[in-house]
Write a structure and sequence with these properties.
The complex is a heterotrimer of chains A (about 160), B (about 525) and C (about 110).
Chain A lengths: L2 H22 L3 H21 L3 H25 L15 H21 L13 H9 L3 H22 L5
Helix pairs in contact in A: 1-2, 2-3
Chain B lengths: L2 H7 L1 H18 L5 H22 L30 H21 L9 H18 L5 H19 L6 H32 L4 H7 L5 H18 L7 H9 L2 H30 L4 H30 L4 H22 L2 H30 L12 H4 L1 H15 L5 H15 L4 H27 L25 H19 L2 H18 L1
Helix pairs in contact in B: 2-3, 2-5, 3-4, 3-5, 4-5, 4-11, 4-14, 4-19, 5-6, 5-11, 6-7, 6-11, 7-9, 7-10, 8-11, 9-11, 10-11, 10-13, 11-12, 11-13, 11-14, 12-13, 12-18, 13-14, 13-18, 14-16, 14-17, 14-19, 14-20, 16-18, 16-19, 17-18, 17-19
Chain C lengths: L6 H21 L3 H24 L4 H36 L13
Helix pairs in contact in C: 1-2, 2-3
The chains are: A mainly alpha (about 160), B mainly alpha (about 525), C mainly alpha (about 110).
Chain lengths: ~160, ~525, ~110
C-alpha cells in the first residue's frame, strides 16, 4: 500500500471517529476539542489531495475561527456550560435519512467499483485558483458577499443589547 | 466581468441593494420612524419593478432597458454563471409584487419599533436573493442565491427579538434551512463529481450518460434539500410551526414569497433533464421517467396530505399554512410534466398564490391586530363586524379554492387542461388535482360559514382591542388596508381579464423550454 | 491490497460524515451540538468538491471544484455566525438553549 493510501485510511478514520465523538460525548467542552481535531483531520486530507490552499483555509477558518466562535457560544450561554446532553433515541426521520444516504451511496459505489481511477492527483497553483475565483467564478464571491451582508446586518441586531 | 457591464444588467438588483444599505445607514444616523424606511423600501421595489418590466420589453419603456433584447432568451453562453430568460424576469416581477405588498403592510406596525430598519433591510435582501435565483445558470450560483434569501428570512422571522415565539420559530427555520443547505450542496458536489462542472445546462444535457449513478444520487439529494425549501411532504413539518410563530407579515412573505423561489429552483434544475431525455433512447428515457415519477409522487403527497391536515386545523394561521403546503403540490405537478402549457399553468398558479396567500395572511395580520384570537372559531360573525375585511378574506379563500372570476380559477384551469393535453397517465393527475380542489373547498367553506353564518361572540367574550396609537382605515392601518385592497383588486382583475399575462407567460414558458434544448 | 484512494472509498468517507451530521441535526437537543452537526454535514460536501477537483479531467474543471470548495467554506462559517446569533438572543430571553425546551411551538 502506498504511503498516501495509508495516510488516507488514517485521516479518514480519525475524521469519522472525531466527528462521532464530538456529537456523542457528554461534556460540551470536550465536544469542542473533538470538533477541532475533526477539522484538523479534514485539513490533512486536503493536503493529501494537494489542495494546499484549502488545507490552510480549513485550518484558519474552521480549526481557528469557528472553533473559537463555538467555544465563545458555550461560554456566553454559561449557565449550561457543563450541562450534559441527555441521550436521545433515534428518531424515525433520522433513521430514514441515514438509510437514504447509505442506500444511495452504496448504489453509487457499486456503480463505480469497476471504473478505473486516474491515479494522478492534480494540484493547482494558488495563483491559478485565485484567478479562477476572481475571474469566471467572481459571481460566486459577490453572492457570498451578499449572504454575509444580510447575515451580519441581522445577526448584529439580534445580539446587540439595546434599549427597548 | 467588470462593473461597466454588470451594473446595467443587474440594475434592479443594484437598486434594491442600494435601498437596503441606505436603510441601514439611515438607522445609524438616527432615523427612527418606520415611515422613512418603509417609503425607501417601497420606492426601491417599485423602481426595481419598473426596471424589470423594461427588461421584459414593455412598450414605451425602452429607455430604462438594461438587458438588451438579444440577451433575454438568448443562447446560453458556455461557462456563464447567469443568464436572462423572460420566464425568470416574470418571476422577478412576482417576487417584487409579494415583497411590495408585505413592505406596504409592514407600515402598519408600531411607528417607532426596535428593528424597524433591520426588518425592512432584511426584507429587501431576501428579495434581492430571490431576484438573483431567477437568473441562475450555474448550480453553485443558484444555491448561493437561495442562501441569501434563506439567511435573511431566518433573521426576519426572529426580528422581534423580545418575542420568544418568533425566536423559536427562527431557530426551527434555521435548523431546517441549514439541513436543506447541507443536503443540497452535497448533491451539487456529486453532480460536479459526475460531470466535472457546475453549469446547469451542461449537467442537464449530460445526464444520465457517463457517471449516471453519481449524478442520479446528486439529483436525489438536491430533490430532498430543495424539498424542504418548498415544504413538499414529507419535508413539510417545519413550515406550519414557522409560519405560526413568525410575525404575521413575515408569514405572509414566507408563504407568498420565499417558498416560490424554491419552486423556481426546481424549474431551473429539472426542466432540462426532464425535457431532453424524453426524445432519446430507452435507457435515458427510463431515467427521465424515474425523475418525473419522483416529482409526481412528491406533488401528489404534498397536495393530498396538506389538504387533509388543513381539514383538521382549528387555528387560522396553521390552517392557512397547511393549505399553502397543499398548493405547492399543484405547482410541483405542473413542473413535473415539463410541457410548455403545464409550465405556464404552474407559473400562473405561482402568481395566483403570491396574491392570494399574501393577501390571506395579511388579513390574518390585520385581524390579530384588532385583538381577535387565533382560532377559526374566534372569527365568528366577522362578516357583520368587519364587512370589508371579511369580504377581502372571502375573496382570497374563493380564489384559493379556484372559484371562477378569480385568478385562482384561471390558473387551475390552465394547469389542469395542460395535464389533460399531455395525454397518457397525466390525465389521472388532473383528476387527482380536481379531487384535491374539491377537498379543499370543505375547509374554505367552513371558514366562510364561521364568518358569515355564525353569530358574533358576545361582548364579554371579545378581547379588548390592543392599545396603542389609533390607526387609520377602520383601525387596520392604511398600509395594511392598502396592501389587502391591492391584492384583492389584482385577484379580481387577473380573474376577469387574464389574457395579457397568460399570453406573455405562455410565450415565456415556450422560450424557456426551447432554450433548454 | 490495492490503493485505497478511490472514488468509492472517498464517497464512503464523505457519505459517513454526511450521515453523522444528519444524525446530529435530527437527534441532538443542545443547540451548540446542532451547529457542530451542521458543520460536519457541510464539510462532507466540501470534501467531495476537493476530491473531485483533485481527480478532474481538465484543469479548468478542477479549478471550478476548488473554487466551489472555497466559497462553501465561507458560506458554512456565515451559517454558524447566524446560528450563534439566534442562540444568544434566545439564551438571553430564556436562559436555556435546548431545542426541546422551546415548547411553545408544537409539531
Amino acid at each position: 500500500m502506498s504511503p498516501e493510501g495509508l495516510a488516507f485510511l488514517a485521516l479518514g478514520a480519525v475524521a469519522v471517529i472525531t466527528a462521532l465523538a464530538a456529537l456523542l460525548v457528554r461534556e460540551l467542552v470536550h465536544t469542542i476539542m473533538w470538533i477541532a481535531s475533526f477539522f484538523v483531520a479534514l485539513s490533512g486530507l486536503y493536503f493529501l489531495l494537494q489542495a494546499s490552499f484549502l488545507g490552510v483555509l480549513q485550518l484558519g477558518v474552521y480549526a481557528g475561527a469557528v472553533t473559537i466562535l463555538l467555544l465563545f457560544g458555550i461560554m456566553v450561554t454559561r449557565r449550561r456550560i457543563f450541562s450534559r446532553e441527555a441521550a436521545t433515541g433515534l428518531s424515525l426521520t433520522s433513521l430514514f435519512l441515514a438509510l437514504l444516504v447509505i442506500v444511495l451511496l452504496a448504489a453509487v459505489a457499486s456503480d463505480l467499483a469497476g471504473a478505473s481511477n486516474s491515479t494522478t492527483i492534480h494540484s493547482y497553483a494558488v495563483v491559478d485558483l485565485s484567478s479562477a475565483l476572481f475571474g469566471p467564478y467572481g459571481g460566486w464571491l459577490l453572492l457570498l458577499g451578499l449572504v454575509m451582508l444580510s447575515a451580519l446586518s441581522g445577526a448584529i441586531y439580534l445580539v446587540r443589547e439595546g434599549r427597548e | 466581468m467588470d462593473l461597466g457591464t454588470l451594473i446595467p444588467q443587474f440594475l434592479p438588483e443594484f437598486v434594491l441593494l442600494g435601498a437596503g444599505l441606505l436603510i441601514l445607514l439611515g438607522e445609524r444616523v438616527g432615523l427612527e420612524r418606520r415611515e422613512y424606511f418603509g417609503a425607501l423600501s417601497l420606492a426601491g421595489m417599485l423602481l426595481a419593478f419598473l426596471l424589470v418590466a423594461a427588461d421584459l420589453g414593455t412598450p414605451g419603456m425602452g429607455g430604462l432597458r438594461g438587458v438588451s433584447a438579444g440577451q433575454v432568451d438568448g443562447a446560453a453562453i458556455p461557462g456563464a454563471l447567469y443568464g436572462f430568460s423572460s420566464l425568470g424576469l416574470w418571476f422577478q416581477e412576482f417576487f417584487l409584487l409579494a415583497a411590495g405588498l408585505v413592505a406596504l403592510a409592514f407600515l402598519s406596525r408600531p411607528s417607532v419599533e426596535r428593528g424597524a430598519a433591520v426588518s425592512y433591510a432584511l426584507l429587501i435582501f431576501a428579495t434581492l436573493g430571490m431576484l438573483l435565483v431567477t437568473l441562475a445558470a450555474d448550480l453553485v450560483y443558484l444555491l448561493l442565491a437561495l442562501e441569501i434569501t434563506a439567511i435573511s428570512s431566518y433573521l426576519l422571522v426572529g426580528y422581534t427579538r423580545r418575542d420568544p415565539r418568533g425566536l423559536e420559530a427562527a431557530m426551527k427555520f434555521y435548523i431546517i434551512g441549514a439541513l436543506s443547505a447541507a443536503l443540497s450542496f452535497f448533491g451539487a458536489s456529486l453532480l460536479f463529481g459526475a460531470y466535472g462542472t457546475t453549469s446547469l445546462s451542461v449537467i442537464g444535457h449530460s445526464w444520465p450518460s457517463g457517471s449516471g449513478g453519481l449524478a442520479s444520487a446528486g439529483y436525489a439529494f438536491l430533490l430532498v434539500g430543495l424539498g424542504f425549501e418548498v415544504t413538499a411532504v414529507p419535508f413539510h413539518m417545519w413550515a406550519v410551526d414557522v409560519y405560526d410563530g413568525a410575525p404575521d407579515e413575515v408569514s405572509a412573505f414566507l408563504a407568498g414569497g420565499t417558498k416560490k423561489v424554491g419552486l423556481f429552483a426546481f424549474v431551473l434544475l429539472f426542466t432540462v433533464p426532464l425535457l431532453l431525455v424524453g426524445s432519446l433512447s430507452s435507457a435515458t428515457g427510463s431515467a427521465r421517467e424515474s425523475i418525473q415519477l419522483s416529482l409526481v409522487v412528491l406533488a401528489l403527497l404534498t397536495m393530498t396530505l396538506g389538504n387533509l391536515l388543513a381539514l383538521l386545523q382549528p387555528e387560522m394561521k396553521r390552517l392557512l399554512a397547511y393549505s399553502s403546503i397543499s398548493q405547492a403540490g399543484y405547482m410541483l405537478l405542473g413542473i413535473a410534466v415539463g410541457t410548455a402549457p403545464a409550465l405556464t399553468g404552474a407559473s400562473l398558479q405561482i402568481l395566483a398564490h403570491v396574491l392570494l396567500k399574501t393577501g390571506a395572511f395579511l388579513v390574518v395580520a390585520a385581524v390579530s391586530a384588532l385583538g381577535i384570537g387565533p382560532l377559526v372559531a374566534d372569527w365568528r360573525g366577522l362578516g357583520v363586524r368587519r364587512p370589508y375585511l371579511s369580504a377581502a378574506f372571502a375573496l382570497f379563500l374563493l380564489g384559493l379554492a379556484g372559484i371562477p372570476l378569480t385568478v385562482g380559477f384561471v390558473s387551475k384551469f390552465v394547469l389542469f387542461s395542460a395535464l389533460v393535453q399531455a395525454e397518457g397517465w397525466f390525465l389521472w393527475l388532473a383528476v387527482a388535482g380536481l379531487l384535491n380542489s374539491a377537498l379543499s373547498v370543505f375547509y374554505y367553506a367552513r371558514i366562510l360559514k364561521t364568518m358569515y353564518v355564525d353569530k358574533s361572540p358576545t361582548a364579554e367574550e371579545t378581547a379588548p382591542a390592543r392599545s396603542g396609537e389609533p390607526l387609520g382605515a377602520d383601525g387596520l392601518g392604511w398600509g395594511r388596508a392598502g396592501a389587502i385592497a391591492l391584492a384583492a383588486v389584482a385577484v379580481v382583475a387577473l380573474g376577469v381579464y387574464p389574457q395579457p399575462v397568460l399570453g406573455a407567460l405562455g410565450t415565456a414558458a415556450q422560450h424557456f423550454l426551447s432554450l433548454g434544448l | 491490497m490495492s490503493d485505497p484512494i478511490t472514488t468509492a472509498s472517498f464517497l464512503g468517507l464523505s457519505g459517513a460524515l454526511l450521515g453523522i451530521g444528519l444524525f446530529g441535526i435530527l437527534t441532538r437537543r443542545n443547540f451548540i451540538l446542532l451547529l457542530i452537526a451542521i458543520e460536519i454535514a457541510i464539510n462532507a460536501a466540501v470534501l467531495n468538491f476537493v476530491y473531485f477537483a483533485a481527480f478532474a479531467s481538465t484543469p479548468a474543471s478542477g479549478l471550478n471544484g476548488q473554487s466551489a470548495a472555497v466559497v462553501l467554506v465561507g458560506l458554512a462559517a456565515t451559517e454558524i455566525a447566524v446560528g450563534l446569533a439566534i442562540v444568544l438572543a434566545l439564551n438571553r430571553l430564556r436562559g436555556s438553549i435546548n431545542v426541546t425546551e422551546a415548547t411553545s411551538l408544537r409539531l
